[in-house]
């Protein structure tokens, strides 16, 4: 046996190169660093200070195993020795740590133009809601009546505010609108029938289907009409001794057009004979409490459902209401009391932080201070405001790139279309403006923006990256410009330099 230039002291198979071809592959595996040796490296010690010893110990073991598999699979180059193996394992460990850092909840600049982006947490909170969260992060009067010192009702004030805002007799808050639907069906109709038009038998995100909710609640689904046309007579014929409720579901993430017909809520309330004890439930979803007709947005308003005779109206807190994730139920006090006293209520109730943020957001609605709610502020922005923001962004990118002596990415200001998103106003688009950047390696640029601090999510279309200004706040323009430059947008030039 001859000793080769790699110093492993083992023979090679004839005509074969690479670690996998070495007869004494076990000798290479013995050169892998031990866990203690790995943890003693300076870079790894810094990670221990940042994440703690436990997670880093797990990553160290996983990094060593990865390198072991690479050696056994012949994936490493010929020149491999102990120091190089150590470098590889440390690099692998850092990758694992970076992945952990990316996955933790963090700030994201939303440049997609989708206002209620479900994957980005839907509605951003108003400053007043954030301040209230901070104020209530410690001990609070969550279930204490400070005027008497006795136990109080959780969320009592926000319930009063919601009732006043919507014109309802009372209100209830749970952790999301799906919970509100489940609680309502179980409390009102378990073991009995609920009448629903076939065209409203919806599926929302995550394959959350209404028939599945019915099965979970114990209520029986009674479908009436056809997919596109349902009449008042269909409801009348379906009504019987087993009927517990009539449910109307707003098609919040799709629309039916053409040869379609179905009764209005007012017709169901006033023209359909209902025995006492049969509830009329309106599941609105989006939670709009101020009409957006002036913006050309046709979306049902909660107060209208209350006025038209719904016994219970269900909607989300983190959609067009502009608050935290919550399921809100408003309506007649007798029905609200039935929901509040149901055993499931404790399982779906909200914590103090959700109630605090929702209370602050509701106060803004009651005062009519809509510009203080980010969702409404974004909805009401004019095209000239968006154009001005786009120009400020291109100017900031140019200034920062020139200041660093690097190339300025080719930019243009383009007409764009924003969406409301989040299962609200399906099909409606808002005219917007976007800064577009040409890049030969578009995926690499988008990835660099996502993985930086703060993360930036944009749209990719054709050979350009689109940064939609409707969902970028004025305070984020300078930071967004810095991220574009640091992500190397100018190093992926495609075409001539352009300043928009």
Can you give a write-up of this model?
The structure is a single chain. The chain is built from 19 helices and 17 strands. The chain has 500 residues and is α/β, with parallel strands linked by helices. The protein has three domains: 19-103, no CATH class; 108-117 and 380-492, Aspartate Aminotransferase, domain 1 (Alpha-Beta Complex); 127-372, 3-Layer(aba) Sandwich (Aspartate Aminotransferase, domain 2), CATH 3.40.640.10. The strands form five sheets. It has a seven-stranded mixed β-sheet, with helices on both faces. A four-stranded antiparallel β-sheet has the order 13-14-17-16. The N and C termini lie far apart (69 Å).
